[in-house]
Fold this protein.
Amino acid sequence: MPPEPLRPHQPHDGHEDQAPLVGREPFVRLAVPDDDDALGRLDRATWSTLHAVSPRPRPPYTPFFNENSTPGDHLVAVVGDGLVVGYVKLGRPTPLASNAHVRQIQGLAVTDEARGMGVGRLLIRAAVAEARRRGALRLSLRVLGPNTPARRLYESEGFVVEGVQPREFLLDGEFVDDVLMGRAL
């Protein structure tokens, strides 16, 4: 079953035009509060143990934005008239002043329909630019060891492996490594 269409600023009624995304150039913008529903649906549609360490979300769903995850923490990739096709969360790894020069990618998701269109790369580049704009000197992230496509994408954008926590998570009965990656800005 394909994921539900994701449109900010419009309620989902199942009757939206579902034209293919090919030829629709994606762009990135800061999230707004009205993106909550679309981003929540995107998160649920893309959930996988390849990248998620928390259990699969179940109804009733909690809001996507909360006190620890605000619109200002997210950049969204959209096409056409506002169809949300991905997001990246950019945050601080700790609240410490001694760590204020670092930002961290704390989530990235792209719809199945937008895979192969360069949306992930566009989001990473936007996160790098936004982290610089916010005064960061370094950008880090954590990725699960088996997530080879994501690791390759991050490496192609200048991230290097800085550490591995072996067998950090037990997912689907398998232990998986947590890989720390980072880059200077």
